[in-house]
């Protein structure tokens, strides 16, 4: 006798501020989860990069070595390495445990907006305002990038990787997807400077946010518009967007200090989360749980669903 | 904060053992090649492999019984004092350590001891025990042991017992006993291979079969089920590996001694072990030869007793049709009805035998060949009968014995029905004509054809025209007649200095064209109105002419010699640039305009997507664990094609043809076009009265900053006049500069090459601290990067970033007007989306968010209040400060309305631009401005 599959629970949105990280890093330029969502990285404008346990709110380590503000960071699949890029035009490759800089990749002509590891953390892909995406080899000791993707006509604001694709959003209004397996480059024009691009978890769609205050969900293969999400304000700043843990909602930061949640399919505004009075600059969604990190000005907050009870609050 | 250090240590989790960190400079050890690798055992001896097929091992010392010192037998010493004690040697004494190890033949693994094993021991052990009891000094001691031994049963037995199982029974549901099919004749021994015991027929002798009440069920027999495990190894049939149990105790039931067969029955108790004799003791198995402890050579193979062979033909085959097959019987009994099914092997789970045999395929014999058949094929030449080769045809047809008809047979399939009918002599049916054209008269047909041709030509022409006009309108040269004089004038006034421009031969490849071009240049020089039209080849089509006209005009403007001011700012590239070819990406993202409209209509998909062939670097593929999509290609990135360097086509955009190179300039063209519609941006070389004309637009644009603009105007004019006075140039050069500048200005973004040219030197240097580095960069930006003659969007960046220096240092350059600088400043700040401003009250470091300009950073620590005092000190110093102020303002007003920012920044940039007349300037700050600055101060301090 087969039991019926348990009905999938309705996705919950993070509404409750559980924790606020005492960053003291100046402006937090980016906040990123690690691969399993247990830790997070905050990139400060005070040239430091911090590793946190977001739910406990403890600072685990501070990585300093950038010459200017850190703009983006990413962790490797095995949590053993970090990479970060900043205004000092360098891409740094860190050892998590020792906090040492393993490699320092120089070559970008402008500040590095975004960095990503590939699946096996053998390549760091970085995008910069010098309108190039560079792929750095972490294995060998050669100082030059493996490949420079200089097709963008303007600064590259966001880069995301899948197992065989590099997705780069550029200020020239195009998101370019380099498919390594097919050996093809797909450029989708959205008409407005792109601030952030994302893959959906199923790898079928790309989410593109641009400076015309709208997010667009495009079909990856055809480039067709699957959804458009508006209502927030994104006119001048580079803000993050992401998808919720089960791809049910589209999440975007906004210049009015809120975080907006849209239903992915219906495109309706599901939730507006007031975060702060300033601009919400960076977002990160937990890979498996309804947990959101927001960075606004100097504050990083961790948001959970209503029913969430923190571990230390649980009766012993 | 205090807890941080300890926390970070505690919470870090390390997995695995880290590799020893390599010493700097130490080379990782080279791995040994395979041929040099040796196998050694744990003692460091070389391991020798014996018998690659039998998996043998090396015994003793180099395969001898000895040791390194030679063979030393155990010495027998016995004296009166020292009696030789009887050493009882176990098998282990003759074994190597390897044999006792985990993978040896007698592994000393942890096994369940008797105490913990189940009560029912295997018979062998039982016998050994009984034997020991007999041989023990106190007979029956072990029996006593047995008696007082606690009843220890394995948990499986206990569970089974709880479930009602009793020893001796089988496991499973109780069954009804079926009447026996056949009774084996008692006393008749079955020789050959024994039948396996089957479920219900094996041993029913114990039961009374005659009385079987219906309601009585029996426990199933305790039988070992037939093992259906398929043979999945590569050993020979019935091969058995070495069983340590047998090897040690020499118990082998399969081994029959040919001649001790008889004794077996009598010495039941001691028969199978015979420990005193030690006969079966030792290693035995098919993988090994005769063991040292085995006495009889004949015992080593599983020989059968002679008496087990049949000597007489008997009627003993029970007619089961098995003839020695040892398959389980149930198949046979079940499938008795189908006698012809001979398949008696194992049947896989889930399969059953087919009830009907497959109908065998009938095989037909091949056709019989005629007697005189020769298996050689000749190809007959195909000759189409025409008047010339009719003779040949005839001979051919004679030779083949066939008549080639007028219609060659090869065309048979191309005939249609009507033609076939014709050939057959049928009268064609009127209604069957397929085309309406056939009803038309010849005249009409001709007319239609003519019309068709005409429309085609017309369409082509229209297309070409549209193309041209589009190309024109897309470019900065409008095609409309009222604009024509303007362009003409531009080109004319641009003073294309034919003498020098002849150095540039843009159409050197095509001498005719070059000639035309030179003629065109001459015409321009003479000031002819229709300079272009007159020199074009009248033989060319309209479209070609339009194109060439366009090219010529552009070439005349592009390939003018760089003016003195420009050339002083650029040096030639270090690399040899004189090759006529330039690499241009083969595929280009086509025009943005139609895409933009597609985006506006939300028609994403094909319209907004460009797809290119793209070659990833091989190493990148490797790192991504992906096979190289183009394993044979040497290209990396987008495929490039060589183009004429001086071909204007590189800079032309023909929207229809994507194959033609539409370089990045295309984007800028669009923007140029765009900007053309707007009030023209004032450029720094504009003459004053032009400037005045534009005032309206500026002030309109900056309506909020009217008062400031007024001041600006007043200050600007004398200034510009001054500058002009000092650097009085011919008006033509000015316009030319104007053009150049416009180009600079309108180019939205500098190309990558330019970035590289500017940054390459400094980025190679080590620069840990960004501030110094960036200020260096600012300087380096000031030096000329590299003048690329092909790039019309020359150095937007250079211009913007080094604006201040240039304006201050380059003497012959007039002061740029305000708006220009403002725009440039804005641009330098905004490479795409900015980062949000930060007011961080709890910031650890009181540091301003990093700004793009390092000037600002280096001065940002100064208090703004000092500005006023310092303003008078140095000119360029003040410059920086002003700029910084502006920058800060910008930050603060990040969220304010656009207009306001613009206003404030212009007003500020007014200040900065007017730095040369700074003495007046200080007084001229409006009270509101002062107020505003004051208000801002605390925030900045924070």
UniProtKB/TrEMBL annotation, chain A:
One of its GO terms (biological process) is inflammatory response to wounding. Interacts with EGLN3/PHD3. Interacts with ERK signaling proteins MAP2K1/MEK1, MAP2K2/MEK2, LAMTOR3, ARAF/Raf-1, MAPK1/ERK2 and MAPK3/ERK1. Identified in the spliceosome C complex. Interacts with PARD6B and CRB3. Interacts strongly with GTP-bound RRAGA but not with inactive GDP-bound. Interacts with p62/SQSTM1. This is WD repeat domain-containing protein 83. GO terms for cellular component: catalytic step 2 spliceosome; cytoplasm. InterPro entries: WD40/YVTN_repeat-like_dom_sf (IPR015943), WD40_PAC1 (IPR020472), WD40_repeat_CS (IPR019775), WD40_repeat_dom_sf (IPR036322), WD40_rpt (IPR001680), WD_repeat_MORG1 (IPR051980). It is found in: Cytoplasm. Signal peptide: none annotated. WD repeats lie at residues 63-104, 105-137, 250-272. Its main location: cytoplasm. Coiled coil: none annotated. It comes from the Eukaryota. Pfam families: WD40. Belongs to the WD repeat MORG1 family. Keywords: Cytoplasm, Repeat, WD repeat.
TrEMBL record, chain B:
It comes from the Eukaryota. Residues 152-172 form the G-patch domain. Residues 723-734 have a biased composition (Polar residues). Belongs to the GPATCH1 family. Residues 906-916 have a biased composition (Low complexity). PROSITE patterns: G_PATCH. One of its GO terms (cellular component) is catalytic step 2 spliceosome. The gene is GPATCH1. It comes from Sarcophilus harrisii. This is G-patch domain containing 1.
């Amino acid at each position: 006798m087969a039991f019926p599959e348990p009905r999938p629970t309705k996705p919950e949105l993070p509404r409750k501020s559980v924790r606020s990280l005492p960053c003291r890093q100046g402006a937090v330029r980016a906040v990123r989860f690690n691969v399993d969502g247990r830790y997070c990285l905050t990139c400060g404008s005070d040239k430091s990069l911090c590793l946190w346990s977001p739910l406990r709110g403890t600072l685990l380590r501070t990585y300093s070595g950038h010459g200017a503000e850190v703009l983006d960071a990413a962790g490797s699949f095995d949590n053993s390495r970090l990479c970060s890029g900043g205004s000092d035009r360098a891409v740094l490759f860190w050892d998590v445990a020792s906090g040492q800089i393993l490699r320092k990749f120089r070559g970008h002509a402008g500040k590095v907006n975004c960095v990503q590891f590939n699946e096996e953390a053998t390549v760091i892909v970085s995008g910069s305002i010098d309108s190039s995406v560079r792929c750095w080899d972490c294995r060998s000791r050669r100082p030059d990038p493996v490949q420079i993707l200089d097709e963008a006509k303007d600064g590259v604001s966001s880069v995301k990787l899948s197992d065989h694709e590099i997705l780069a959003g550029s200020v020239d209004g195009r998101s370019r997807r380099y498919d390594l397996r097919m050996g093809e480059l797909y450029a989708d024009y959205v008409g407005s400077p792109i601030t952030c691009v994302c893959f959906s978890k199923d790898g079928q769609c790309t989410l593109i946010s641009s400076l015309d205050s709208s997010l667009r969900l495009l079909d990856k293969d055809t480039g067709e518009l699957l959804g458009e999400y508006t209502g927030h304000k994104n006119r001048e700043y580079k803000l993050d967007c992401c998808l919720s843990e089960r791809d049910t909602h589209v999440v975007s930061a906004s210049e009015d200090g809120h975080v907006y949640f849209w239903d992915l399919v219906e495109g309706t505004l599901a939730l507006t989360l007031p975060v702060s009075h300033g601009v919400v600059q960076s977002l990160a969604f937990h890979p498996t749980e309804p947990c959101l990190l927001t960075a606004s000005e100097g504050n990083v907050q961790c948001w959970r669903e209503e029913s969430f009870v923190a571990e230390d609050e649980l009766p012993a | 904060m205090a807890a941080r250090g300890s926390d970070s240590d505690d919470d870090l989790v390390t997995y695995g053992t880290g590799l020893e960190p390599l010493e700097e400079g130490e080379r990782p050890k080279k791995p040994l090649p395979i041929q040099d690798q040796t196998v050694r055992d744990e003692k460091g001896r070389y391991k020798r492999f014996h018998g690659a097929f039998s998996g043998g091992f090396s015994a003793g010392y180099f395969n001898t019984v000895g040791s390194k010192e030679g063979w030393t037998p155990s010495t027998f010493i016995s004296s009166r004092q020292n009696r030789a004690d009887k050493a009882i040697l176990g098998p282990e004494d003759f074994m190597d350590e390897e044999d006792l190890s985990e993978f040896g033949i007698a592994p000393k693994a942890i096994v369940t001891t008797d105490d913990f094993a189940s009560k029912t021991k295997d018979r062998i052990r039982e016998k050994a025990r009984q034997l020991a009891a007999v041989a023990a000094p106190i007979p029956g001691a072990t029996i006593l042991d047995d008696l007082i031994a606690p009843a220890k049963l394995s948990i499986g037995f206990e569970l089974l017992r709880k479930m009602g199982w009793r020893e001796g029974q089988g496991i499973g549901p109780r069954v009804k006993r079926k009447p026996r099919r056949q009774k084996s004749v008692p006393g008749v021994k079955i020789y050959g291979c024994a039948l396996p015991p089957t479920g219900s027929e094996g041993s029913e002798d114990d039961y009374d079969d005659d009385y079987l009440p219906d309601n009585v069920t029996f426990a199933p027999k305790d039988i070992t089920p037939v093992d259906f495990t398929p043979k999945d190894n590569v050993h020979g049939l019935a091969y058995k590996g070495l069983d340590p149990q047998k090897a040690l105790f020499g118990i082998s039931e399969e081994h029959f001694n040919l001649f001790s067969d008889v004794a077996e029955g009598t010495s039941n108790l001691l028969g199978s072990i015979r420990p005193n004799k030690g006969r079966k003791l030792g290693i035995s198995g098919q993988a090994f030869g005769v063991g040292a402890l085995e006495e009889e050579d004949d015992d080593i193979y599983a020989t059968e007793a002679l008496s087990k062979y049949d000597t007489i033909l008997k009627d003993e085959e029970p007619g089961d049709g098995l003839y020695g097959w040892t398959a389980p019987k149930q198949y046979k009994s079940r499938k008795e009805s189908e006698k012809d099914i001979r398949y008696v092997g194992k049947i896989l789970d889930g399969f059953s035998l087919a009830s009907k045999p497959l109908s065998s395929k009938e095989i037909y014999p091949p056709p019989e060949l005629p007697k005189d058949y020769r298996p050689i094929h000749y190809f007959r030449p195909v000759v189409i009968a025409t008047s010339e080769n009719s003779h040949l045809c005839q001979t051919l047809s004679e030779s083949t014995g066939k008549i080639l008809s007028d219609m060659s047979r090869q065309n048979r399939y191309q005939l249609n029905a009507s033609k076939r009918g014709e050939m057959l002599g049928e009268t064609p049916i009127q209604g069957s004509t397929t085309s309406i054209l056939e009803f038309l008269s010849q005249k009409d047909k001709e007319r239609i054809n003519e019309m068709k041709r005409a429309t085609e030509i017309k369409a082509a022409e229209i297309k070409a025209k549209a193309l041209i006009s589009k190309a024109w309108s897309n470019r900065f040269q409008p095609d409309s007649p009222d604009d024509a004089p303007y362009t003409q004038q531009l080109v004319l006034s641009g003073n294309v200095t034919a003498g020098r421009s002849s150095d540039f031969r843009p159409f050197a490849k095509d001498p005719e064209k070059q000639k035309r071009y030179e003629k065109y240049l001459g015409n321009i020089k003479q000031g002819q109105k229709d300079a272009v039209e007159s020199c074009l080849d009248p033989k060319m089509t309209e479209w070609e002419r339009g194109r060439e006209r366009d090219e010529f005009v552009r070439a005349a403007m592009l390939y003018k010699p760089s003016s003195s001011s420009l050339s002083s700012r650029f040096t030639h590239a270090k690399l040899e640039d004189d090759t006529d070819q330039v690499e241009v990406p083969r595929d280009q993202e086509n025009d943005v305009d139609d895409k933009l409209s597609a985006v506006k209509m939300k028609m994403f998909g094909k319209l907004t997507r460009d797809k290119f062939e793209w070659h990833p670097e091989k190493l990148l593929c490797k790192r991504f664990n992906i096979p190289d999509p183009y394993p044979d290609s040497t290209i990396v990135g987008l495929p490039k094609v060589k183009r004429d360097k001086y071909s204007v086509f590189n800079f032309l955009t023909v929207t229809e043809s994507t194959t033609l190179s539409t370089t990045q300039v295309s984007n800028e063209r669009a923007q140029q076009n765009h900007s053309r519609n707007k009030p023209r941006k004032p450029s720094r070389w504009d003459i004053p009265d032009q400037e005045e004309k534009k005032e309206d637009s500026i002030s309109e644009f900056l309506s909020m900053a009217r008062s400031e603009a007024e001041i600006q105007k007043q200050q600007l004019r004398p200034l510009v006049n001054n500058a002009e006075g000092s650097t009085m140039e011919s008006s033509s050069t000015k316009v030319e500069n104007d053009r150049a500048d416009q180009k600079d200005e309108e180019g939205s973004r500098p190309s990558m090459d330019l970035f590289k040219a500017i940054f390459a030197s400094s980025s190679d240097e080590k620069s840990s601290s960004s501030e110094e580095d960036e200020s260096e960069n600012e300087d380096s930006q000031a030096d000329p990067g590299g003048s690329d003659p092909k790039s019309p969007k020359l150095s937007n960046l250079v211009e913007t970033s080094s604006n201040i220096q240039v304006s201050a240092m380059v003497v012959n350059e007039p002061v740029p007007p305000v708006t220009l600088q403002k725009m440039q400043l804005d641009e330098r700040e905004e490479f795409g989306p900015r980062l949000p401003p930060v007011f961080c009250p709890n910031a650890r470091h009181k540091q301003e968010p990093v700004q793009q300009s390092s000037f600002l950073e280096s001065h940002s620590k100064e208090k703004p209040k000092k500005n006023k005092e310092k303003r008078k000190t140095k000119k360029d110093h003040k410059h920086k400060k002003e700029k910084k102020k502006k920058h800060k303002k910008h930050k603060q007003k990040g969220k304010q309305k656009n207009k306001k920012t613009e206003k404030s920044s212009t007003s500020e940039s007014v200040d900065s631009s007017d730095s040369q007349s700074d003495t007046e300037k200080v007084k001229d700050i409006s009270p509101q401005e002062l107020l505003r600055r004051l208000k801002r101060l605390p925030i900045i301090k924070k």
